């Protein structure tokens, strides 16, 4: 049953659908264009197939209201598969999940390795990026 729920969430997210207006991109160039148009930073989550920590992080991002609203209001969200999707080489992904928060000019604000279970950790990073974007 758990695998069915994860599969449904993955399929919903994989097709760039929106969940309560949270659009999730799966193409780096298109997400970057959107970030430039809206002057918003990118929130890039790198995952790989079969990564349970990646699935947990996706679930938290989509189900914890505090995180979801922060992503909706502040970022262009991009989920990429480390092994299948194309992205710039400057993102060196040795472990997954890995999150990058990147300016519309492709300046890396922060890189977050691994799964962090506390939503507060992410809201701190969201606030840091917000301050950086204002400068």
Molecular structure report:
This protein has a single domain, classed as Glutaredoxin, CATH 3.40.30. It contains 5 helices and 6 strands; from the N terminus they run αββαβααβββα. The protein has helices at residues 2-14, 28-38, 52-63, 65-74, 119-134, and strands spanning 18-19, 22-25, 42-47, 76-81, 98-102, 108-113. It has a 6-stranded mixed beta sheet, with helices on both faces. α3 (52-63) packs across α4 (65-74) and α4 packs parallel to α5.
Give keywords.
single chain, six-stranded mixed beta sheet, alpha/beta, 135 residues, globular, Glutaredoxin, 6 strands
Write the layout of secondary structure elements.
Blueprint: H1 2-14, E1 18-19, E2 22-25, H2 28-38, E3 42-47, H3 52-63, H4 65-74, E4 76-81, E5 98-102, E6 108-113, H5 119-134
Parallel strand pairs: 2-4, 3-4
Antiparallel strand pairs: 1-2, 3-5, 5-6
Helix pairs in contact: 3-4, 4-5
């Amino acid at each position: 049953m758990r695998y069915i729920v994860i599969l449904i969430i993955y399929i919903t997210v994989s097709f760039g659908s929106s969940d309560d207006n949270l659009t999730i991109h799966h193409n780096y160039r298109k997400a970057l264009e959107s970030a430039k148009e809206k002057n918003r930073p990118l929130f890039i989550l790198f995952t790989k197939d079969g990564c349970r920590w990646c699935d947990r992080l996706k679930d938290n991002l989509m189900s914890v209201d505090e995180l979801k609203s922060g992503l909706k209001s502040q970022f262009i969200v991009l989920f990429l598969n480390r092994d299948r999707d194309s992205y710039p080489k400057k993102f060196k992904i040795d472990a997954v999940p890995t999150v990058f928060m990147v300016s519309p000019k492709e300046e890396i604000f922060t890189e977050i390795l691994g799964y962090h279970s506390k939503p507060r950790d992410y809201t701190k990073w969201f606030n840091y990026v917000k301050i950086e974007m204002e400068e």
